[in-house]
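Review form for a predicted model. The reviewer records the input and the model, then writes brief findings.
Reviewer: anonymous (R2)
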Amino acid sequence: MSWGVELWDCVEEVLGQVTSDTEDVCGVYGKFIKERGEVEREYAKNLRKLCGKYLPRGEKSGRGQQGEMSKERAFRLLLTELGYQAGQHEQLSEIYTKTIPQDLKTKAKEDSKLAEKYKKEIKHLQQSVDQAQKSLEKSSLKYKKIQQDWVVAEETLQKGESDCSLSRREVEKLRSISCEKQKQCEESKSLHARQMTTVKERKEEYLQTSLPAALNGLQGLSVGSGQYMKEVWLRCVRAEQEADKVIQGCHKEMERIAEEVRPEEDAQMVIEKFKTGNMPFTEVTEAKTNTIKRSKSSMKISNDIESQTLYQQKRQLQTKVESLEVEISKGQKEMSGLQLMIQSYTSNPQFGDVTKFKAELDRATLKVQLHESDLYALNKELSGVNTRLEGMRRSSSFSHPAIAPHSLPDTSGVLRRDRSPEGSVASCTQSDSSGYPSTASIGSASDKDNDSIEESSDYKRRIQTLLSQSEAFYLPSTRVSTSSYVV
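Model under review:
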C-alpha cells in the first residue's frame, strides 16, 4: 500500500504529517537525547567528585605506599575502578550531547529540504490543474453565450421570413447574421471540446502519475526518517552495552579486589608498624620522692622512649638494604653488558671506538662499589641493632609464647641477600680479577686487624680512595664468561 493510491485526496494531511515528523527529529528526539546526555555527564561528574573526596591525598597518583594495608589498598583500587566507570559515563555523555544531536540536526535539515521540494511540486501540479479548469469554465460560458446568440438570431430570421412587411433584402441580412452566429457557435463548441479533453488529460496525469509520485516520495521520506531514528536508538543502546561491558569488567575487578582483603595480614602489619622490640619488665620498684630519684626516673623514661625505636630502625635498615641490593644487581647487569660490548668492539675494531664503553664501565664500576660500601655499612648497623634487641630480650624476665614468624609479602620480586656484614654481596666481587679490593676482603681484613668496626663514613672514604688509586676495572662475577682486559 502506498500513499499515492490510498491518500490521493489527503494531500494537506500528508504534508502536515511529514512536516511534523521532520520537526520531531530535532525537536522531541534530539532534546530527549541531549538531556539524557546531561544526566550521564552529571552522574560522571558526581562520581569523579566522590572519588576525589575519598582518595587519600598522598595516593592521588594511583600508586600504593610501602606498608599499605590490604583494606587500604583495596579501597584505593575500588576508587580507581569507580573512576573508570565515571569515564564510561563521560563517553556516553559525549555521544548523547554532541555526536548524536549533530547528526540529527544534519538529518533534519536534509529532510526539510526534500519535504519542501515535494510540497512545491505538488503545489505546482495543483495550480496547473486549477488553471486548466478555470480556462475550461471560461470557454464553457463563452460557448453558452454564443449558442444563445445563435438561437436568438435563428428565431429572428424565422419571424422575418414569416413577416410580409419586411423586404427581401432585410430577410437576407437576418439570414446572414444567423449563419454567422451558427458558425461562431460551432467554433466555440469545438474549442470547448478541445479544452475539456486537455483538462481531462491533465487531471488524469495529475491524479494517476504526478500526485502519486510526489506522495510516494513523501512516504519514502517519512520511512527514511523513521529508519534513521531506529538506527539512532540502536546506536544509543549499543553505546550503553559497550559501556556496560567495561563497567561489568570493573565490577569483576572490584570483586577480585575485595576478595584480596586480608584482615589477618593487616593485623600483623600493625605489629610491624608499631613494634618497638622492648620487653616488658615485671620488677616492682618503690616510688621515691626526692629530687635525685625523680631525675634518674626521668632519665630512665627517656632511655626507654629512645629504645622503643629499635625495631622500627631495624625495619628501616632492612628496607634500605633491599633497595641497595636491587641497585647493585642492576649495576652488575649493566657492567656485564658493557664488558660484552668492550670485548666485541676490541675483537672487531671496525665496529667503532671502544673508549666510550670503557668510560661508562668506569662509572658503573664506581657506582656499584659505592653501593656495596653503603650496603656493608648498613649491614653492620643492622647487626648492631639486632644485637641490642637480642640483649633486651635476654635481659627481660618476661618470655613470649611461641608465635609463628610472620613476614610481610615481598613485592619487590628480588631475593634477599645474607644480612651478615661478612656475607653481604660477597658473591659479587672478585679480588683476583680486579684492581679494586672487594668488600668481603676489606671486611675480613678489618676483622682480623681490629676488634671494632670502623664507622660507615670512614669506610666509604677508604673505598673511594682505593678506587681513585686503582687503574684496573672492576669485574663482577657473572654467568656470562668474559675475558678481563687491562687499559
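Findings: The CA atoms of residues 281 and 397 lie 7 Å apart.
Further findings: DSSP finds ten helices and no strands in the chain.
Recommendation: see findings above.
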